[in-house]
Amino acid sequence: MDFITSTAILPLLFGCLGIFGLFRLLQWMRMKAYLRNAVVVITGATSGLGKECAKVFYATGAKLVLCGRNQEALEELKQELIASQATKVQTHKPYTVTFDLTDPEAIVGAAAKILQCFGYVDILVNNAGISYRGTIMDTTVDVDKRVMETNYFGPVALTKALLPSMIKRRQGHIVAISSIQGKISIPFRSAYAASKHATQAFFDCLRAEMEQYEIEVTVISPGYIHTNLSVNAITADGSRYGVMDKTTAQGRSPVEVAQDILAAVGKKKKDVVLADLLPSLAIYLRTLAPGLFFSLMASRAKKERKAKNS
Ligand SMILES: NC(=O)c1ccc[n+]([C@@H]2O[C@H](COP(=O)([O-])OP(=O)(O)OC[C@H]3O[C@@H](n4cnc5c(N)ncnc54)[C@H](OP(=O)(O)O)[C@@H]3O)[C@@H](O)[C@H]2O)c1
Q1: Centroid of ligand 1 to alpha carbon of 52 (angstroms)
Q2: Where do the TM regions start and end (predicted)?
Q3: Residue at 2 is within a domain
Q4: Residue of 34, 95, 152, 192 marked active site
Q5: Number of domains the chain is built from
Q6: 169 and 122 in one domain?
Q7: 3-class secondary structure, 175
């Protein structure tokens, strides 16, 4: 019996491992082929996650269009990429397009410029965004609107401006960098959480509507990442928050998150949560035990209020 078990199980085990390894290799090769020479547009490429996404997509041989508000910073990144020798694959000189996502007219003009760069777009990464800190009662509606314009209406307008050319080619991939706060809402982040919930909802609808044209939609929901997001956040009166929050400082490295995003896009994943266990569990708690989730958020609000007033 022992002899039969050992002679049957070991080859079976190695066979399974071999098949799994082969599957992973094929998946990796397919992913590389999908991204190599793909025209990839990245918004918010001047900083943090967008900058790191630019680096990883560039290194796979993608043809980049780097977008942001600061032309100097975009040009600097472009030169950095050209000078980098981190890859053996053939790379392509990136283009840059400067515009503000809160300006609807600028978005229409920018979309035309983006299309002129390589003639078409394969992948749009809607990454640019701002965060917010404040109480609902102290926050002016203008601030709510500014966050919504940057994080929601801007990406929606850019996506709509680029979709017709994708539909014509029956090829394209829209990526939305949302947040864990697109799935759960945390006190004193109302405008941000609302903008990310809207993002999740819009791009979920888009995925269903675009299936007939074979256009992919990926929504990525990261947890905290160590970038300047909290420093650049706006407060209740619209001024810059200017503080590196402890949670953000302790967040994941943007390099690692960019690599995870590259893999998720390459594998054409539909909805990806890139967060630690606790925030991931909170999503389930919100669905399965909403009462408990709401009390936890209320005590979090109480604790933060107390800390601020002490
Ligand atoms: N960091 C985190 O903990 C975290 C967690 C989950 C999700 N995210 C999401 O990740 C994305 C990238 O954020 P990040 O962490 O890399 O923050 P970041 O370092 O502050 O970068 C934000 C980027 O968005 C651009 N941007 C802001 N407002 C814009 C506007 N009106 N028009 C055009 N571009 C604008 C910024 O450009 P300028 O240089 O011109 O300001 C910058 O390039 C955001 O969507 C954010 O919500 C971040």
Answers
A1: 12
A2: 6-26
A3: no
A4: 192
A5: 2
A6: yes
A7: strand
| 6 occurs within a structural domain | no
Q: How many A from CA of 150 to the centre of ligand 1?
A: 9
CB 74 within 8 A of CB 45: yes
Look at residue 15 and tell me whether its pLDDT is greater than 90: no
**Site to substitute for ligand 1 among 42, 43, 148, 225, most atoms within 8 A of C-beta:** 225
Lowest-confidence pick of 37-41, 227-231, 303-307? 303-307
Instruction: Report the Cα 238 to chain-centroid distance in Å.
Output: 24
Query: Do 263 and 283 share a structural domain?
Result: no
Per-residue tokens: 130: 């701002």
* Separation of CA 212 and ligand 1 centre (Å): 31
Task: Specify whether 191 is located in the same domain as 295.
Answer: no
Question: What is the band of 91 on the pLDDT scale with cuts at 50, 70, 90?
Answer: very high
Domain that holds residue 132: 31-275
Q: b/e string for 108-118 if b means 16 or more Cβ within 10 A?
A: eebbeebbebb
Question: CA 104, CA 150: separation in Å to the nearest integer?
Answer: 10
Q: Is 25 within the bounds of a domain?
A: no
pLDDT of residue 85: 76
Burial of 259 (0-12, 13-18, 19+ CB in 10 A): middle
Q: Is 241 a catalytic residue?
A: no
Hey, is 62 helix, strand or coil?
Answer: coil
pLDDT at position 25: 85
pLDDT band at 2 (very low <50, low <70, confident <90, very high): low
DSSP 229-292: TTTT-EETTS-B-----HHHHTSB-HHHHHHHHHHHHHTT-SEEEE--HHHHHHHHHHHH-HHH
Residue pair 216/174 in contact (Cβ under 8 Å)? The answer is yes
